[in-house]
Amino acid sequence: MTSSHDRTQVFISYSHKDEKYLEGLLPHLRYYERNKLLDFWADTKIKPGAEWQTEIRNALASAIVAVLLISVDFLDSQYIQDNELLTLLIAAEKEGVTILPVILRPCSLPESISRFQAFNSASMPVAKMKGYQREDLWVKVANAIVSTIASQKGKGALIQKKLDLSGIVADEHEAEKEQVPQSEVQEEPTQGNDLTDQKILIKQGVGVWNEWRQKYPDIKPDLSGINLSRLDLSNANLTFTNLVGANLETTILVGANLSYSDLRDANLHSADFRSAKLTMAFLQNTNLEAAILIGADCNRANLSKGDLSESDLSGANLSEAILIGANLSRANLSEVNLEGANLKTAILSETNLERANLTNCLIYGISAWDVQLQGTIQNNLVITPLDQPTITVDNLKLAQFLYLLLNQKEVRNIIDIFSTKTVLILGSFMAERKVMLDALQDALRSKGYLPMFFDFEKPESRDITETISTLAHLARFIIADMTDAKSIPQELAYIVPQLPSVPVQPLLLASASAFGMFEYFNRYPWVLPLHLYKDQASLLQSLEEKVIAPAEQKSQELAKR
User: Fold this and answer.
1) Does residue 249 form part of some domain?
2) Which residues contact 218 (CB under 8 A, 6 or more apart)?
3) CA distance linking residue 311 with residue 314, whole number of Å
4) Sign of the CA dihedral 534, 536, 542, 546?
5) Are 209 and 237 in contact (CB under 8 A)?
6) Which of 160, 187, 207 corresponds to the end of one domain?
7) CATH code (residue 453)
8) Please, are residues 512 and 485 in contact by the beta-carbon 8 Å criterion?
9) How many CA atoms lie within 13 A of 134 on its CB side?
């Protein structure tokens, strides 16, 4: 039987009919493979001429983590069931191999698989996800793999090795013992277990600690609950370290590397993390009040429900970080990169976001008051939850107000005119047409408008007609791209008769077929003639003359009535 300590690989099991999903995951794993944090295997690594069944058996025998990319074709494959899945389930039960299921397409999970926690629910398979949702899922999968491997390696190293502190902590003491006759040597008490040794070692100084980390790179240190308050740990190697519940109040960690470390529930009040690396660190429920994180790299770190009030994160990298429910009141986030970050329900009261980059941030449910936004990039802010049709705006304060309008009927009823600069874009912009959407939004921004985009490709989880109607009431005019958008006509049929003050400019790709009921809208003077465009370049070239100018002129005419 293979020893669990001999298992080092990540085995990816999938159906060849789902290869496109595998290609989405692999780039996230290759990054860690290049940095020697994991070694993954999929049958795409089988070289021509190799005996593929032997290759698969060897990879299964070496697996410490198994990622199951599940679909109806995965479950229907007799080879996968008899050779891969059965072997992995037995290894999970007898040798502790970790099973990580990802649901690709709708299917019913057998009990043998459903007992393992999947990354996503059956109601939201990867096939239904789009854009950053899929990327966010693959990031989570990669993070879980790296964390699991680090944990397993740490356990293996602790089992197979006695922590050798003699050459680091007690060289002089050991030298004295060698000079004493054996008959005169008395047995001394041990220094304690491995956990105690690590907690002693970190207090010997950064030089001693980093030397030990270099000597035992596979060990994942456990410093949970330790008191390191007021120590200078600048440039310390604390990667993959368990610091859960630790006290690091006013600790100096300038230039320290805490990537992939677990600092949940830790006290980091007034700690100095200038230029520190916290990539993919776990910082949920941490106290970071008044902490200094100037220039810190917190890419993909999880700071959910953390208290970062009055902290200084100026110039830090928080791209794709998770800040769900975090308290950022009075914090300095000037020039911070928050691109793609999740700020759901975060508190931004009197927060300084000057010259920060908020592109593609999820800001559903945030509380933003007296926020400083001079020079801030605010493109494509997502104001809806992940499981609802995506609505984006380009202004943080507007986003919060829109959220209230969409979810509070009382507020909605007292608003007659919302903005003279808001343009609602309706359409279906799948991956191959996403470039056109971006170009259209950029062109509108350059003219001083605030584009709002409603994506008809999202799963329907609320009354879409009600949502579109609310957004339409706020718009200066509406641009409706009929290309590949089957449900737009029926939505227009509902809102056009109700909104005689809002011009509608329909667009259609010249090579696409016009829908039959378009003549129905000709009776409404505020619906402009259909504009046909050949391609993206021709649309952008004619945007001012054929789309914006007619819509703006019609809006002014309607306002005088």
Assistant:
1) no
2) 153, 154, 156, 157
3) 9
4) positive
5) yes
6) 160
7) 3.40.50.360
8) no
9) 19
Instruction: Give SS3 for 533.
Output: strand
Q: How far is residue 221's CA from residue 550's CA, in Å, rounded to a whole number?
A: 66
Interval 205-242: pLDDT, tens: 999 999 999 998 888 899 999 999 999 999 999 999 99
The residue whose two tokens read 């649309």 is 539
Report yes or no: 145 and 29 within 8 Å, Cβ to Cβ: yes
Q: Are 482 and 512 in contact (CB under 8 A)?
A: yes
Q: Which residue has the tokens 């010997």?
A: 204
**What's the domain count of the chain?**
2
| Cβ-contact 361, 382 below 8 angstroms | yes
Residue whose entry in the numeric block shows the structure tokens 């070692």: 201
> Over the stretch 387-425, which tens digit does the pLDDT of each residue have?
777 889 998 888 877 777 776 665 555 454 455 788 999
Q: Which of 467, 512, 462 lies closest to 485, judged by CA? A: 512
Which of 104, 133, 160 lies at the terminal end of a domain, its last residue?
160
Which two three-digit tokens encode residue 316? Answer: 């830090």
Q: Tell me if the pTM is above 0.70.
A: no
SS3 365: coil
Instruction: Quote the CA–CA distance of 419 and 396 in Å, as a whole number.
Output: 15
Beta bridge partners of residue 312, listed in sequence order? 292, 332
Residue 539: domain span: 416-561
